[in-house]
Specification:
globular, seven-stranded parallel β-sheet, alpha/beta, 390 residues, Rossmann fold, 16 helices
Length: 390
């Protein structure tokens, strides 16, 4: 059975939990090690006890560099007693830096797979900092045997443009996990009543101040015809007073965190539209990404709203679904949504639910395919590959 050492930048990130679920469902054994953004260590991630490498703070790059340096110095002690991995999966650049130290600690030549699902704005800077980070990634990436990334725009605009990683690239989209025995259920959901107030769901990593201000102003101008429901983990460092602003707004509500995929049907079943827009790193990562909420929302029949000129908008236009705003303004939102009728909404929803479910979600077979690719990278014997893929 393939043994994966999974090095992560934030053990508390829900996306890490999803990847752990995928790897286990695909037949892999896991050693999980990483930093955390929570004050206290986590004791269990889907039956895996994580190795705590320390606390890091969101948005504090210098602090994170110090934490990486400290973890690198003590990585042998942190991993002492753990089984030697067949492959090392490093999520994000700082963990790629730890992967080589982990190999030395184990005395192994296990191949490294680089999982990069966001392109941080710092590596895109056209100054000494940006050039230094890109140079570090190129050096650390010389031994990478496979690159996993979530959007083709990341490949075009970053990895190929700057020549960062000379390794095969695998597109691993941020699809919803559907591993239950009953199979797909989303298209059978009735969804909310096709009537006012029309509800827009903004779920997931809430980090975009511009989106919050735009949605607040739009709902105020619509005077009750539209509401916005927010769920997930707000990046409080990116807002002056997230909870205060949302609490004071008449047509915004925040329902806290949720479990993915367990709570998806419930939260998306209560909204008509999903906000698939992010201006956090406008023109860069936010323009190129294909966010989790795109797949989650469409899988449960909500109508996605995207911004023109983004990879998300291109994706939706290729599928022939959704609403694309021409500009980030209340006027553009009013033009796209202000005259919404039950008939138009049902037509938009029907277009979404008519899509092939595999567009939005992955199943147990997809998990086995992922692990089989890691088995191939690890160079295990054919018999072992067959055992994992069975």
């Amino acid at each position: 059975m393939l043994h994966v050492l999974y090095l992560v930048h934030d053990i508390s990130d829900p996306a890490v939990r999803r990847r752990v679920i995928m790897l286990k469902a695909g037949g892999a054994r896991l050693t999980l090690a990483g930093f955390r953004r929570t004050k206290l260590p986590l004791s269990d991630i889907e039956g895996v006890t994580p190795i705590d490498l320390g606390y890091t703070r969101d948005g504090r790059f210098a602090q994170r560099l110090g934490a990486v340096a400290k973890a690198a110095a003590g990585i042998a002690a942190s991993l002492k007693g753990e089984p030697v991995p067949d492959v090392i999966l490093a999520r994000n650049l700082e963990m790629l830096a730890l992967a080589k130290r982990a190999r030395c600690a184990f005395g192994t030549s296990a191949p490294v797979v680089y999982e990069c699902l966001d392109i941080h704005r710092l590596v895109l800077r056209d100054d000494m900092v940006g050039r230094a980070l890109r140079g570090a990634e190129r050096r650390l990436g010389r031994d990478v045997r496979l690159l996993l990334t979530s959007s083709p725009a990341f490949v075009r605009h970053y990895f190929q443009k700057f020549g960062q990683i000379d390794a095969p690239i695998e597109l691993l989209e941020n699809k919803l996990l559907e591993l239950g025995p009953k199979g797909p259920v989303a298209p059978t959901l009735a969804g909310p009543l096709a009537a006012q107030p029309w509800r827009i769901g903004w779920f997931g990593a809430l980090r975009c101040r511009k989106s919050l201000e735009l949605l607040q102003t739009f709902t105020e101008s619509a005077d009750g015809a539209f509401e916005v429901v927010l769920r997930g983990r707000p990046a409080l460092t990116e807002f002056d007073d997230f909870l205060g602003v949302v609490g004071a707004a008449r047509h915004l509500s925040f329902g806290g965190a949720y479990r993915n995929p367990e709570d998806m049907a419930a939260i998306y079943g209560g909204v008509h539209f999903s906000w698939a827009i992010d201006f956090f790193e406008e023109g860069l990562n936010s323009t190129w990404l294909l966010p989790n909420r795109l797949y989650e929302g469409c899988r449960f029949g909500t109508v996605p709203i995207a911004m023109a000129g983004t990879e998300t908008a291109t994706f939706l236009q290729r599928q022939g679904i959704g609403i694309v705003l021409e500009e980030a303004s209340v006027a553009a939102l009013d033009k796209a949504l202000g005259t919404m009728t039950p008939e138009r909404y049902r037509a938009l929803r029907d277009q979404v639910t008519a899509c092939e479910p595999s567009t939005w979600s992955c199943n147990s077979s997809d998990c086995r395919v992922l692990v089989a690719k890691l088995v191939k990278v690890a160079g295990l014997a054919d018999g072992e590959i067959a055992a994992v893929a069975a």
